[in-house]
Amino acid sequence: MSTAYTTLIDANELARHLGAADWCLIDCRHDLANPAFGREAYARGHLPGAWFLHLDEDLSGPRSGTNGRHPLPDPDRLAHRLGACGVGENTQVVAYDDAGGMFAARLWWLLRWLGHRPVAVLDGGFQAWCAAAKVLTSELPRAVPARFEARLQPGAVDAAYVEQHLGKADMALLDARSPDRFRGENENLDPVAGHIPGATNRFFKDNLDAGGRFKQASVLREEFAAVLRGRDPHRVVHQCGSGVTACHNQLAMEVAGLAGSRLYPGSWSEWCADPARPVATGPQ
Q1: What are phi and psi of 80, to 5 degrees?
Q2: SS3 for 84?
Q3: Region 210-220: what's the mean pLDDT?
Q4: Catalytic residue among 24, 28, 85, 240
Q5: Buried (b) or exposed (e) across 43-67, using 16+ Cβ within 10 A?
Q6: Helix (H, G, I), strand (E, B) or coil at 77
Q7: Residue 240 annotated to the active site
Q8: Digit-coded pLDDT (tens) for 39-97
Q9: What is the value of pTM for the model shown?
Q10: Distance CA 38, CA 15 (A)
Q11: Among candidates 115, 114, 116, which has minimal Cα distance to 24?
């Protein structure tokens, strides 16, 4: 493989590699309110050669009631699933959705967690592909299985880590949820409203421009610099409601050249499941 794409790829660049043997496309479309949506949308039409992975069934593990709404999947099980889609050690993976990268970024993060670097999100997603008059198909891809081994990387922290570092200068929590949910208003997904004390709100949709594509790297760098206020990117821990949109903020930081941040996968849905953990409301 020549150039590896590790953050974003645009529709025209992807089209030039369509059908390449060492490339694999993954359709990550999903609707939190309608879990059947992604599979149905995929059946109606998807990018040629793309496989479908489901957020709940493939990109998340079993829920216990205390480990959040989208706990991390078993790494070996996910590696086997990716191998069945043809992802090998050097395969360039491109993930896409129709929600600004909201779900595709989850797969981007998971692959990096498994030790796979050549993975990118289609900038502008399904809409950008269609707007460029690119072809769709309802045909299923032909399986050419590959061997994919999980080599776990230290990119995640758990609830105990977050608790131990609350209020300390060596952790900067970034919450990717909408401002109203962060403040504790209009909570529609989790049983408790509010946020982890000390967190700063950075709504993941603020990473996108009016056309649904990621903002320029220089703009993202400036915006995250304002949020971080001089704190080292390596101290950043991303969280959201369930560890999905938080990956979008990490991807945006990587696009901006701010590498080294980590994810708290359990996020708010895990945090608030324990009534002993502190909860904050309001803008701070």
Answers
A1: -65, -40
A2: helix
A3: 98
A4: 240
A5: eeebbebbbbbbbeebbbbeeeeeb
A6: helix
A7: yes
A8: 999 999 999 999 999 999 999 999 999 999 999 999 999 999 999 999 999 999 999 99
A9: 0.97
A10: 22
A11: 116
Q: Where are the domains of the chain?
A: 8-131, 159-271
Specify the residue for token string 């079993």.
Answer: 62
Fold agreement (8-131, 159-271): yes
Residues 198, 273 contacting (CB under 8 angstroms): no
Q: With pLDDT > 90 as the criterion, what percentage of the chain qualifies?
A: 95
Q: Which CATH number fits domain 8-131: 3.40.50.300, 3.30.2350.10, 3.40.250.10, 4.10.480.10?
A: 3.40.250.10
Taking the CB of residue 153, how many other CB atoms lie within 10 A of it?
12
Name the one residue in this structure whose structure tokens are 């101290």.
Answer: 235
Give CA–CA dist 203/182, Å, rounded.
9
3-state secondary structure of 59: coil
| Six token digits for residue 281 | 């409301």
Task: Tell me the pLDDT band of 2, cut-offs 50, 70 and 90.
Answer: low
Assign domain 159-271 to a CATH class: alpha beta
- pLDDT at position 3: 83
